[in-house]
Amino acid sequence: MENQMNVWRINTRTRNLEISEFPAGWERLGGRGLIARILNDELNPNCDPLGIDNELIFAPGLLVGHRLSSCDRISIGGKSPLTGGVKEANAGGSTGLHLSHIGCSVLILEDQPKDSNLTVIYLSSQDCRFDDGSHLAGKGVYESSDILLQKYGPEVAIALIGPAGEMQLKAAGIQNLDQDRAPSRIAARGGLGAVMGSKGIKALVIDSSGGSPPDIADLKGFRKAQKSYNKSLLDHPQTKVYADYGTAAMARISHSFGGLPTRNFSEGNFESLEGISAETMRDQLLERGGDSNTTHSCMVGCAIRCSNVYADGKGRGIVSPLEYETIGLMGSNLGIGNLDEVARLNWEANDLGLDSIELGAALAVAAEAGKMEFGNFSQAMELIEEIRAGTPTGLIIGNGAASTGLAYQIERVPVVKGQAMSAYDPRAIKGTGVTYATSPQGADHTSGLTIRAKIDHLDPHIQIDVSRKAQINAAGYDTLGVCAFAGFGFGSAPEIIPALLQARYGWDVPGDILQELGRQTLILERKFNQRAGFTKNDDRLPVWMTREELSPHNTVFDVPDEELDKVFDWINEDD
Ligand code: SF4
């Protein structure tokens, strides 16, 4: 049985839905790869990201739909208002699963309404309608999702924006409900929440109650491959570490490499590491009890369960999850060494619908400009309140680190292609610096993190291959809809991905299909960016990082430009 792949295309001005089969060239793509294909096929790369010609694309990955552990992610994409280039941001939660169950292989939101009324799109296998969303205007993500769940029922999936998206701020993301209906799984990066806001859409509600999982061509083969995958995943030692400590374990690892961003990327070690470490978080949560949960999953069926619920001293939940990237950018990078304070900042970012990486980086740049003191939680909260109020200062910070640096004339701004770096200083973890510099997505650890490679991370001459491989694998996983941590299982048994695809779709695929999908995706993304005007000069870290030494190793980013240009030398870009 050959699976039918359908495009659902909604014109946000006429409110018309059209469903059609995939056109040629799209059939064997999903998630990030499909987004890159569509942007190349349908978009003027020079269009205004917040104008009528941009599209907002929701693309479940190729393996989404069957509750395979950690494999139901949603990719969301369009032209980025933050970078001006190609953008895909993905999230866990339930949006991908529910879209696949109503028979939608990709949803494209086109055009823009003529009026400024906020709407909610309701989608099911039988219905598409625009409901009034004006009562949600200006409301935070948490309150909005409560109202929506009351109206549409507790089982629906929701992707929604907060006030930041409504204000079309470039650090705005799109939140998705997790399996406990908490709206905190954000497709964070690149300002896609602003694109959703520019189309007047507060929320997308997906009701899959009348739907069913996508067809499987060979059910027996699929279950056999799934069983091997589960075994491989559960046998991997990191699966247990992530269940106990989650991504927060990276705080100590980054610190040990001298790459934990501290006070606006000015140091690589943080004197208050113990206050924000995974060990402290776990001990606190076990002691506090109540809503606390050290081992939690964002989606049904995940065997890794890297997520958590962070509760206060009385056991009342503050935020879920509290992840390393937020701990790095809103903790050490702001000089804040207290997890309760980081959790409260995280809640605010979530409620506004803001990327906590971009916001943390922007606040640190603002601190350098004297707008707050490093380590001062109350002042950080006051600046976030300015974003909510839409003051001039709030708009500057809410538009991201580059905007903040420009407004306050600060040189130490940690961005590439306009997007803030994640919580790994590239002067200490140089392979990840190569990824930041050259990824078509802008600075983003999820595009190819190298910290786990068994190499000297300070040697500038051995990073290119490591970053290239990491970028190809990451683009492959994002095209499949697979969480990066599922790589614990797939990495040690690479034959499982071809077996799953073959069983699900009936396709004959090569043994290196993961890398094949990754390469295809990167070729398409580079092509889009090239057409949008990007050159090799955009594949560079900021100059100050090549001059200003980072303690404790006192190193600069010194991977030569000629080496950076080799990362994609396998692509013929003259075509
Ligand atoms: S490993 Fe973590 S992020 Fe990945 S699917 Fe599971 S809970 Fe979600």
3D architecture notes:
By secondary structure, this protein is of the alpha+beta class. Helix content is 38%, strand content 14%. The protein is built from 23 helices and 17 strands. It has helices at 31-42, 95-101, 141-152, 163-166, 192-198, 219-235, 237-245, 250-256, 273-276, 278-288, 324-330, 339-352, 356-368, 377-389, 392-398, 401-408, 430-438, 464-480, 487-492, 496-505, 513-531, 544-547, 561-564, and strands at 6-11, 16-21, 56-60, 74-79, 86-91, 106-110, 119-124, 128-132, 157-160, 174-176, 185-187, 201-207, 293-296, 307-311, 317-319, 415-416, 419-420. The strands form four sheets. Strands 2-1-6-3-4-5 form a six-stranded mixed sheet, sandwiched between helices. Strands 8-7-12-9-10-11 form a six-stranded mixed sheet. Helix 11 runs parallel beside helix 13 and helix 13 runs parallel beside helix 16. The mean pLDDT is 97. The structure holds iron/sulfur cluster. Iron/sulfur cluster is lined by residues 70, 92, 297-299, 302, 304-307, 483, 485.
- Give the terminus-to-terminus CA distance: 36 Å
CATH class of the domain at 6-207: Alpha Beta
Mean pLDDT: 97
Bound molecules: iron/sulfur cluster
Helical/strand content category: alpha+beta
Beta fraction: 5-15%
Sheet with the most strands, sense and barrel status: 6 strands, mixed
Cross-sheet strand order for the largest sheet: 2-1-6-3-4-5
Which runs of at least 5 residues are low in confidence (pLDDT < 50)?
A: none
CATH architecture designation of the domain at 6-207? 4-Layer Sandwich
The dominant shape is globular
CATH homology superfamily name of the domain at 6-207: Aldehyde ferredoxin oxidoreductase, N-terminal domain
Over all CA atoms, what is the radius of gyration? 22 Å
Number of strands: 17
Helix content: 25-40%
Helical region count?
A: 23
The CATH topology of the domain at 6-207 comes to Aldehyde Ferredoxin Oxidoreductase,  A, domain 1
